Amino acid sequence: MSGPLLASYWKDNRIVYYLSSCHRPVADQTTERRNKDGTSIELLCTHTVTDYAKYMGGVDRLDQSTRLIKEKKTMRWYRRIEIKLRGTVMDHSPSGTRSRDLLSFRMDVAHELIGNTQVRRAFKRIRQLDTDEVRLDEIAHWPVSSGSADRLCNRSKTTLMCDKCNVPLCVNARSTCFVDFHTKVCYWQ
Questions:
Q1: Which of 47-61, 115-129, 130-144 has the lowest mean pLDDT?
Q2: 119: in domain
Q3: Whether residue 40 has pLDDT greater than 60
Q4: Which residues lie across from 97 on neighbouring strands?
Q5: Which of 37, 81, 142, 167 is most buried by a 10 A CB count?
Q6: Which comes out higher in pLDDT, residue 30 or 174?
Q7: Cα separation, 70 vs 78, whole angstroms
Q8: How open is the CA angle 68-15-91, to the nearest 5 degrees?
Q9: What percent of the chain has pLDDT over 70?
Q10: How far is it, in rounded angstroms, from Cα 97 to Cα 81?
Q11: 170-182 in b/e burial notation, b at 16+ Cβ within 10 A?
Q12: What single-letter DSSP state applies at residue 158?
């Protein structure tokens, strides 16, 4: 942009801000606006408003698609800018004919970016107890139902946990997790 800049706004359904270097700040054009009751009125406006109404397809598509993205308030500012820029690039990328909808186009772009990557299963970290004295004191450690299937060992899942330690432990004939956890210092060996 070169030369003086014209900054203005126009109240459409929402407020639309303009920044132009090729228009003058003279309200010599008229445009038609519909009221809520259906009647139309003529309003004076600048050339920026009439040009916007004439060529607004891409701008409205961009506004519509970026409004769909819900931003988290905890997201860092640079991530918000990155998401907005990616949306802008996707909206303005040449796609030949516009026979596809925006969602299918974005899904295709996401599949191409992600590719065939495999996600490895993340293992839960075992919560460390405050001290080994509580774990090894052999007083009032009772297996109770936890309501969900958890695991401490790699052999099996269990719905039982120690009432005092709040750790899921196996109690069956094949494994001795419950006994080992409460009697051995190195229970994982």
A1: 115-129
A2: no
A3: yes
A4: none
A5: 167
A6: 30
A7: 15
A8: 35
A9: 69
A10: 28
A11: beeeebbbbebbb
A12: E
Mean pLDDT value across residues 102-120: 76
> Please, which residues bridge with residue 88 across strands?
none
Q: What is the DSSP letter of 76?
A: -
Are 144 and 105 found together in one domain? no
Give CA separation, 61 vs 10, 54, 157, 189, in Å: 18, 14, 50, 61
* 144-186 pLDDT, tens digit each: 887 766 666 666 677 788 888 877 777 777 777 778 878 887 7
Whether 101 maps to a domain, the answer reads yes
Q: What is the pTM of this model?
A: 0.33
Taking residues 73-93, report their average pLDDT: 75
The percent of the chain in helix, strand and coil, each rounded to the nearest 5, is 30, 20, 50
Same domain, 144 and 172: yes
What is the domain range of residue 29? Answer: 6-54
